[in-house]
Amino acid sequence: MTTAACATLGRGVFKEPIVNFRNVEVKGLGLSGGSLDVVLSVYNPNGFKLDATRLTYQLQVDSIQVGTGALDQQFVVQENDSSLVRLPVSFTYAGLGAAGRQLIQSGSVNYRVLGDVTVKTPLGSFTRPYSGTGRFSALSGTR
Hints:
By secondary structure, the chain is an alpha+beta fold. It has 3 helices and 9 strands, in the order αββββββααβββ.
């Protein structure tokens, strides 16, 4: 009974981490596709560190899923601080369809990154969703 009460109390004082999309960094482009790193910022608004144990992600370009995956590498976000997390994504132009043609023709496309992050805290483990959008320009990076 005491454990359940502590878990309920813990959930009341836990502040969810804030995950924001930061950037897309193109690592390489070829004739058939390329690779990039999606960079996320994970902010911890709590007065204790968070040990992130898993971060899942989906990268969409104009509503077309380009890449998915999970980062199972642990990272720490100190109290009231942020950490940058890099997620590797490989893609093919054929997989992008119309969005790939738009990127080639106009040099820019809309994107969305979403997923969830799991953290361990002194109050227990929590999994929370995140989402971010923007526009990628091959000439100037993200906006």
